[in-house]
Design goal:
Elements lengths: L3 H16 L6 H11 L8 H7 L12 H9 L3
Helix pairs in contact: 1-3, 2-3
Length: 75
């Protein structure tokens, strides 16, 4: 049987997979987990961000705000 900490880690993994190579903000993680309707084993946004690693290479690990700024200057 899966323990509570194992279930929490599975939830963290699910959140990490959802965001992929985009580094989410704590607010985005919190908002997304609330939308999931989870009532137990809800991972803390700070915990998720500490465990986040880009699913791509280092060159693809961009923060959304950086990407918006870079593409906003392109016309």
């Amino acid at each position: 049987m899966t323990g509570r900490s194992d279930q929490l880690q599975l939830c963290v993994q699910h959140v990490l997979e959802h965001f992929g190579h985009w580094l989410p903000s704590e607010d985005r993680v919190r908002s997304w987990t609330e939308k999931q309707g989870w009532s137990a084993n809800v991972p803390d946004a700070a915990l998720v961000l500490r465990q986040w690693k880009s699913s791509g290479g280092a060159d693809t690990a961009l923060d959304r705000s950086v990407l918006k700024r870079l593409t906003g200057t392109q016309k």
